[in-house]
Design brief:
alpha+beta; single chain; Alpha-Beta Plaits; transmembrane helix; elongated; 11 helices; binds guanosine-5'-triphosphate
Length: about 350
């Protein structure tokens, strides 16, 4: 399943679960009421079906509480419920008003299953209900009147269209909110939450495909001075400028994020610590060479960077952030404007094991 679809399912789960629980309670109450009524009237097959549906709904109520397979349980409720509805429509004892329940199908199936499956289920079961209606009532001139039929068709189309439009706009708003929650407002990069989601996805892929994965933690040097000397607005521009320079040098498959303040993080997919160090070096040189001018005065920017690799420096994001952070602060202690990574890295870096004694 693609990640956006999976994210949409995850976002929708709490409200779908809530709708399902309400429907199950209504089914239980309705099943007891109509089952007793039909039993009393002697309509035993319908009464038994309704009592069975009541018991099944009670079981589902228990099952859906903590399940991770909510979509399957929804289908396990909705399909028998709709089949029972079709059987009830077909039974000779059922009155014509029972067809009113069919109008619930698009609302319930869209609320429970979203726009794609909701639309499919609505179309299939409403078409079956229409066929049953025509077969049962084709002798009734009042019900077969063109105006009555047109009324029912238009009402059905309206309900399908409204339910579908509601689901589309709900999905869109949820995605926009999610996007905003994972984006840094100033630079437009991912924020820490966005980096976390991206890292976990790439970590799974890296483990599955046995590929390396590297993390950079990047901090602008003496950034307080930029703010103090040029003002906060110029500081903001400098952050955006550095972000753009770095973004240009990364592959589209990598992720650059602003972790907060003047600190950035980069997840480099399919990259070893050695290559990540070379990339970090390129980023450092690009930002140091970048020409940012504020009111005719150049703003000089440099960065310190710590590098870590999955499986070498830790097996989770927290461990990699700590390792990269530790190296970043070592870079600061050694005079800033440099990259520090694991011991086996390139010539322009200071190995951790060599540099460590200077800070103790
Ligand atoms: N303009 C601007 N400044 C910010 C933002 N977030 C954090 N800062 C500033 O970044 C500066 C960070 O200062 P410090 O933590 O002392 O670090 P530094 O001056 O970069 O020094 P080193 O990191 O040790 O090289 C502070 O002055 C913050 O106000 C922001 O969104 N915009």
């Amino acid at each position: 399943m693609d990640t956006q679809l999976e994210t949409l399912h995850q976002l929708a789960r709490p409200h779908r679960r809530a709708v399902l629980v309400v429907l199950l309670w209504i089914t239980i109450a309705g099943g007891i009421f109509f089952g007793s009524l039909n039993f009393y009237r002697g309509a035993y097959p319908i009464a038994v079906t309704e009592f069975l549906m009541t018991g099944y709904s009670g079981y589902l109520l228990y099952a859906v509480r903590h399940t991770r397979l909510l979509e399957r349980w929804i289908l396990a409720y909705l399909l028998p419920f709709l089949v029972a509805m079709m059987i009830a429509l077909w039974t000779p004892q059922a009155s014509a008003t029972v067809f009113g329940w069919v109008l619930l199908i698009p609302l319930v199936s869209h609320l429970l299953l979203g726009r794609r499956l909701g639309l499919l289920i609505s179309l299939v079961f409403m078409a079956i209900a229409a066929v049953i209606f025509l077969l049962r009532n084709h002798h009734d001139p009042e019900l077969m009147d063109i105006r009555s039929i047109a009324n029912m068709v238009v009402l059905s189309i309206c309900l399908i269209a409204f339910s579908h439009a509601y689901e589309i706009s709900r999905e869109r708003s949820e995605l926009q909110l999610l996007q905003a929650a994972r984006t840094d407002f100033l630079t437009g990069l991912a924020n820490r939450a966005g980096l976390t989601v991206f890292f976990h996805r790439e970590q799974k892929r890296a483990l599955r495909e046995q590929q390396p994965l590297a993390l950079l933690v990047i901090d602008l040097d003496y950034f307080k001075r930029v703010n103090d000397q040029f003002g906060h607005e110029a500081g903001d521009r400098a952050l955006v400028h550095a972000a753009e320079l770095m973004q240009r040098r990364l592959r589209s498959t990598d992720l650059l994020a602003r972790l907060g303040g003047e600190e950035f993080g980069a997840v480099l997919v399919n990259t070893t610590s050695t290559t990540a160090t070379e990339v970090a070096e390129e980023l450092r040189l690009a930002v140091a060479a970048g020409k940012l001018v504020h009111e005719s005065q150049p703003i000089a920017l440099t960065m310190s960077i710590g590098v870590a690799q999955l499986g070498v420096d830790g097996d989770n994001l927290q461990a990699l952030l700590s390792a990269a952070d530790e190296r970043l602060y070592l870079a600061k202690d050694l005079g800033r404007n440099r990259v520090i990574s694991a011991p086996q890295t390139g010539p322009d870096t200071v190995p951790v094991w060599q540099a460590r004694p200077s800070i103790f």
